[in-house]
Amino acid sequence: MKLPKLQLSTQIFIGILIGIIVGVLFGENLQIVKSLGDIFIRLLKMIVVPLVIIPITTFVITSKTVLS
Q: Where exactly are the structural domains of the chain?
């Protein structure tokens, strides 16, 4: 059985609904999931900071060399 291809916004909405339902049903019993979520968020932050800082630094360095 082949499932229909859903739009990204629909997939995100379904994921949010599933998360809310699971959170309401299981509540405090999901501490392992919270720990995994915290690790995931920290890993995202580790990736995002260099992706923002490096282009800004590169722009500043190249703009200084162009102006001189």
A: 30-68
